[in-house]
Amino acid sequence: MAKLKLGVDVGGTFTDVVGINEDGKVYFAKTPSTPEDQSIGVLNGIRALLEELGVAPDCVTGVAHGTTVATNTLLERNGAVTALITTKGFRDVLDIGRQSRPELYDLHARKPASLIP
After folding, report:
1. pLDDT tens across 65-93, in order?
2. Rounded distance between C-alpha atoms, residue 43 and residue 25, angstroms
3. Does 52 fall in a domain?
4. Which of 23, 68, 86, 114 falls between 20 and 30 A from 31, CA-CA?
């Protein structure tokens, strides 16, 4: 196997690694995610796939990485405590936003909760 492209998906529980060779054959590996340091789970998954296939790391020609961790953190609102600093006199811009709402002049439009109160 001369060349291998990898795709990595880091989830909350598992990290999935998919490899595809030049012939289009697909290979999979799954390892536990490591929330304290995501790179550990990613490297463990890549290592497991390469060892299973007997492929050297220099045969990897590309890696695509994806994760839902950031999206889940926003949706669950359980990320690190943060602060937002804005220019004096422009605080309202944060509330107004892009004015992208179905009814621009609706006085009773409901806005989503602020990520940073």
Report:
1. 998 888 888 888 888 888 888 889 888 88
2. 22
3. yes
4. 23
